[in-house]
Each structure stands twice: as C-alpha cells, then as structure tokens.
Amino acid sequence: MICYLGKISLLSYVLTILSFSLTFLPSANYNYLSVNIFVLILAISSHFILINVFVKLICKGETYQVAVRAVLLGYVFSLGVFIKIYGNEIWKIFAVYMCILSFFHTTEYLSMAVIQPNLVNTDSYVINHSREYTIAAVASWTEFFLEAYFLPDLKCFMWLSNIGAIICICGEILRKAAMLTAKSNFTHMVQCEKQPDHVLVTHGIYRLCRHPSYVGWFYWSIGTQITLLNPFCTLAYTFVSWKFFKERIHIEEITLLHFFGQQYHEYQQKVSTGIPFIEGYKLKSL
Fold this sequence. Notes:
Elements: H1 4-24, H2 37-58, H3 61-86, H4 89-115, H5 131-150, H6 158-182, H7 212-227, H8 231-260, H9 262-270
Helix pairs in contact: 1-2, 1-3, 1-4, 2-3, 3-4, 4-6, 6-7, 7-8, 8-9
C-alpha cells in the first residue's frame, strides 16, 4: 500500500492536472495564443500561484514540500498537454518531452512510496538527482531551443521523435518493473551495509538483466534526447550515461559480492548487466 506522503503526492499531482484542464482546456478558441501570449502567461502563472497558496494553507512542513513538488510536476504535465494541443509542430515535440519528464519523476516518488514508505522523502522525486543531472537537462533544453530557432529543419522528423518517446516509455516501464519487483530491496543509493531483510532478487525482470532499473534509466535518458531531436545531446547523453552506469554498476557489484558471495557470483555468470559493453565487477572464482 502507498504511504500517507505518497497519497499526498498523487492527490496533488492529479488535482493539479484536473484543475488546469478544467480551467484552460475546455475553450477551443486559442487563436490569441500568438497575439496575447503575455495575457495567457499571466493567467497560467496566476492559476499556479493560487494552487500553491491553497496547498500551503492545508499542508505543513514535509507534507507541503512533497505536495508542492507534485503540483509543479503536475503543471509541467498539464502545460505539455496544452502545448501538444495548441502549439505548432516544433513546440509539440517539446510538449511530449515535458509530459515524459513529469511522469518519470512523479512515478519515481510514488514507486518509492509503495516499496520503501519509511525511506521516502523529497529526494525520492530525483528532481535534484545531482548537479550533473541538472546541467545535462539545461544543456538539452538549450540545444533544443537554439536548433528550433536557427535550424528548424532539424526538428521536422516527427517519426524519429515518436521513436524516442517509445524508447522513453519502454525505459520507464523497465525501471518501474525493477523497483516494484525488488520492493524493499531497492533504494536510490548504493547500500554500504546489508540490512537484515535484504535478499538477492533474481526473479521477474531480474531474470533478463542484473540491473534493470539502471538499464531502464539508461535508455529513458537517451530516449528523451531522441524525442527532442537533439543530435548533440543524444550522443552526449549516450556517452555520459554509459560512463555513469559503468562506474555505478562496478561499485554496486563489489557491494553485492560482499553481501551475497557465491550466490551473486553464480547469478553474474547467468545474467548480463543489460547495458552494452558493461560487464560489471567479476571475480574469476570464489
């Protein structure tokens, strides 16, 4: 069952989307989008502020911190839907990306709220995963808008953008399946000490690869850049993500061999890491 903070997050996310939809989507006459864009921005900003004030009145402390992040992510998703409906072809590409990004971070929190209710906190959204993650996101937005303005022909391959979105969906499903399969054995941080209830998970999605959550995130991150039709960031994300997970898997497998010894060694011989050209940390024998 989802914990209390998880329910707050889900409720805030859904109500934000519903509120936005009921306020802005019913009117089909958005011809003033280009003429009165500042009026529209003012209206949307005012709506967001009102929702935030409402959340502030009913939520306190950590509950508010959780709720306000869910509201923000709900707004990102809602704006994505809005732009997808009323924007031009290039903006629709970014709109799909907004929905993908919002859904990923929201479900990260909700998944943790189900499998690790005692450990869930605002960091479970992984919005502020790391400085490098933030820099990568900003770089991808910068490339998209620069190319959209100076090289709009690069943003015309909708079929390729749709393939990127499908890759994101598959990566998302793989990662969440891994989290829900591992349950309490899953954390966002590599564990240094073996917990009493920590067991080696080798069933379900873990029969296909040793690190399905990393594999899912790896392909999801690359998929976001294919969705945006960002050639430079697609290459950069592929290299940087591969390097990050190579190091992360190496460290984690040392820990898992320490925790489970021969059991994990045998598992390594049967199942690959799931990411091309990454073998993990292997011992010749135990």
